[in-house]
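Q: Here's a chain of 551 amino acids. Please give me its 3D structure as C-alpha cells.
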Amino acid sequence: MEREHSRRAPGVFGTLVRHFFSRFFDTESLSPQGEPEAGVIQTLGILAAPGAFFVLLFRPLTLTGWDLVSVRYMFVSFSMTVMGFLMVYEWDALFPDRRDYQVLIPQPLRLSTLFLAKAAALAIFLSMFLVDVNFFSVLMWPGVDGGENFFGILWAHVAAVLASGLFAALAAAALHGVLIALLRGWLYRRVSVAVQTLLMALLVMNLFLTPMMAFRMQWVALHHAGWLYWFPGFWFSGFYEHLRPATRNLPLRELGVFATRALGIAAGVFLLTFLPGYRGHARRVLETTPPAAAGPGRLRTAFDRLLGRTLLRHPVEYAVFHFISQTITRSFKHRLFLATYGGFGAALAVTTFGSGPPGLLVLPLTLAFILVSGLRAAFNFPAELSANWAFQLSEVTGVEPYLAATRKWILVCAILPLFLLMAPMEFASFAPAAALFHLAYGIATSMLLMEVMFFGFRKVPFTCAHFPGKVNLTFLAVIYIFGFSAYSSTLSNLEARLTQSPVGALAFFALASALYLALARSGRKMLGPKPVLDYEDPVEPIVRTLGLTTR
C-alpha cells in the first residue's frame, strides 16, 4: 500500500498544484460563454505592454547620472506596483477557502502536501507574472543605460526589478498572514476587507505618482535623504544603485542594504505566518459563520431607522438603498473597481496640494467627478446576475422609487461623506464663510453632475447584464479626460468669481436648483408613459437587416 501511495503521490501533488493554480484565475465576473485562457492571455499582454513602451521611449536617449536613476525608479516602481496589486487582487486565493477545505480535507491528503502544493502553485503564479511584467524592459534595457559592460547592465536591471516585484508580493502576502494569525471571526473579515481595499487604492495611487516621484528623487536624495526610507520604491532604487552606481550618491547606495533586509523580513514573516496559518485557518474557515449571516451593529441599525423615517419612506426605496450598500461592501470586483477610482483620485489630490488656493478649489470638484463617474460605471456591472429575478418579480409600483433610491444613495453615501471629509481642509485654508460656500457649491455641482451622468439610467444597480464588447474604450477614455478637465477647470473658475459676488452666488444656487429640477423632470419624461427597468443591455443583432421590406 505504501509503494502504491508513493507511486500515486506525484500525480496527486501535480493535480493539487494545477487545481490551486487554476484557482488564482477564478473570476466571478466571467460570463458563462467566457474563456478563462483568453482572459489570462489578454492580461499578460496588457501587463507586458508598458515595459515595452517605456523602454522604447527612453532607448534613444542613452541616459546617465540622475536621469538614469529616475528612469530606473519608474521600472522598479512599475514591477513593484503590479506584483503588489496582483497579490492584493488574489488576497483570498492565497489560502484555501471554505470550498477547498470542504472538498479536500476529507480526502486522504496530508496537510503538508496541501501546503507544498499551494506554495508551488503560488510560486509558479508569481514567477509567470514577474517575468511577463519585466520581460521587454530586460530584453532592451542595455540600450537605455549609457554605460559599458553589457552583461553587468543586464544583470543589475534583472536583479533590481525582480527583487522589487518579489518584495511587493511577499509583503502583501505576509500582511495577510499576520491578519490571519492575529484576528478571528468577524473582526478578521472586516479588517481584511478594509486592508485589502486600502492597499488597492494605495497601489493605484502609487502607479499614477510614479513619474513625479521618479524625477523628484534627486532633490530628495540631496536635500532630505532621510525621506528615502519612507517608501519601498526608493529602497530598491538604492539597491539598483548599489549593484551598478550611476551617481555615487552615498545615501542612495546605503538603501541597497536596507532593501535586502526588507526583502528578507518580508519573506520570513510570510513563511512564519503562511505555514502555521494553514492549520488554524482551516479550522476557522469551517467553523466561522459566513459574512452574509453577520448582522449590522447598533450604530448602523440606528442610522437605518433614521433613514427609513425620513429619506426612505417608500419600502422599495428602502430595499434598493440597502441592496446597493450591501452589494458594494460584499462584492470584491466592485470594491476593486471603486478602489481603482479612489487611488486615481488620491493621486490627483497629492499633485494638487502643492498648487495653493487654486488647487484647493479644483480638488473637491475633481474628486466629486471621479466619485460620481466611478459609481456610474460600477453600477453597470452585475453582482449576481441570476439573482435579479427578485427585482423583476417585485417591479409592480413603477420605476420611480428604484431610480430615486439610486440617487439618494449616491447623495447620502458618496457625495455628502466626500465633502464632510473635505470640510476640515476647507476651514483650515479659507475663512469660515468662504469654506461654507465652497462646500455648498461643491455639493450643488455634484448633484447636477449626478443628474447628468444618470440621465436615462433605468436600472437597479448591479442587476443588469453588461456587454463590455460594445463599448469603444478609447473613445470613452478621450471623452472622459476632456470632460473631466473641462468640468474641473470651468467650475473652479466660476467658483472663484462667485466668492467675490454674494448676489452672483445666490443667483447660482437658484439657477442650479432650477436646472436640477428640470433635469429630473426631463429624465422622468424620457422614461415614457409605461416605463420599465432594464435588466439586459441591448446587443447588436447577429443578423442585421436593411429594413427594405414593404407593407
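Q: Can you summarize the key feature?
A: The two ends are 80 Å apart (CA to CA).
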